Amino acid sequence: MQAVDASSAPLMIKAEAFMEEYAEHGRHTVLDDYTFKWADGRMALALGLGSLFNHSEQPNVSYVLDTNTESIRYTTVRDVAPEEELCIFYGHQLWFQPSGLTTKMTSTPFQPDIEDGWGWLSAMGDTADPTVASSEDSPFKVGDVDEIISEEDLPFTRFKLPPEEEELDSIRTVEAWVVDIPDPRHITRMLRWLKQAGFETPDLGHLKRIRKINDTATLLLATLNVSPTPPSPPPELDLPSPYTIFVPSAPALTPISLKLKSTFWPTLFTPPRKNEVEEWTRGRAHWAWRAMKTVVAAARTAHSEGELPIAAHVAASYSKMASSSLSFTAFDTRRTTSHPLRHAVMNVVRKMADYQASSSTPMRVPTPLLPSSPGRVAGELGIDEPRNGSNYLLTSLTIFTTHEPCIMCCMALTHSRVKEVVYLHKMPRTGGCGGAVCIPTLKGVNHRFGISKWWTETFNTEVDLTVSDTTDA
User: Is the pLDDT of residue 116 over 70?
Assistant: First the structure.
């Protein structure tokens, strides 16, 4: 039997109004063994074939919760032999002893993860792995969560990336429409028209609107992304036709960069404050420790299942840990899937993408482009102001990995706009965060993420998480 969609199971969704009754009575019944966590916090009971799948440590069926149809879609992940039982992976918090395993399991009732096809580890916390030694507990757990932790006391080293865009061929640009204004008396009228036409967008907020060369003023109108066709200024001004030029896509951070960027178009200078380093509180350090402990536990699980002991964890953003935030964890599955691209980082990014695609409430909503027709502003059309990065998977998020991500994975993180990467083991021959190459510092790369190296001695991983130095992690 080839890999196919195995089934689509209907659900009985337990409404929020019944959650209190369920917590008091329902969870003590046999039905609790068949419930799923729904994306909005409710509980779901699988009906039909959805209640018949048994657990396996090496499942041949994956599932996705489809919130649009309120059903679960089951799909085989490999070819299935005749008479072979179809099984799913229940997760790592089992309420029973799996056949053939001697490791003591936790007693927490099982709640299947959001989606199990890319590592099956989306709900691991501080006690996710009972084999983790107590010496690996967070030293930041006790104390004032708002206390600032000194750089020397943090459990990792942050790398300072060199200044960017300090060579002419490294300046990143975008194509934009401009128009010459021969009569200076028309400048005020055109600036007023820009606002009315909806062209005062944040994507050009780092540039000055007017460039003056000799006696001619040139007005910056809009990027080609906002207005693919030439804008139409008020005809009564009788201006020349708009034309396109390349302008810097970001503000200048250093004097050298400012001088270079201003050769394209007058650019704003926004230098970071002297010795500016993002401060870490005790609460945030504890959050990071738990995230690293989660990824180490996932890698140990991968090792026990015959996979490479490499894992990745995208932690829910630390903003007082909002209850609506989600985290995702996955490990390397190249061995069992015989697929060369099933790296831990790729799996966790794919897991997030699958969740977003199947969720009725997407994690991030792409912002529509503003209209190019004059006379109508964004508010009149019911369009929110665009938010930079809102359509990327990892904007403002941190990924924790057991090993320095390879070049391929670092490029995936770049395209996903990850905020920072924190890794445990350096990969000097294959890593993309400074090992073989440092992806964020390459010319032509249009996004830079932070890089931190976790102190290896905080977790006893030298034996069970060791991989060949030629492995692409």
Answer: no
